[in-house]
Amino acid sequence: YKAYIKAVTYPHHGIVCDQNIDELRRVYNRKFPLKIQALERFLALSLAVLEVVPAPAVDISDEALIRDVSDRPILRAAVGAKADILITGDKDFLDSKVKNPKIITAAEFLQME
The domain spanning residue 84 has which CATH number? Predict the structure, then answer.
């Protein structure tokens, strides 16, 4: 939650793509089915301040560094939106050799000045 607040507060500009939202719903359905309503309330509020950006259909060279093919549109969206950083807990992203955008955890983002 703290990372979300920081991401949507000046000078930052938080973005997501439809694939982020879909994946969040899939994870909650599988791991936290009793918290789906709370997730939907959070999404309703957060999408009022986050910018939803498209995931370009055209492949980019760095996406081959992301093992999970279903995660690659998230990287394309971040690159297409010219994001400086991509905040994630996904090990495939964190272990990749992608340089731009910089891929970090929420904890690392909170430690940034």
Answer: 3.40.50
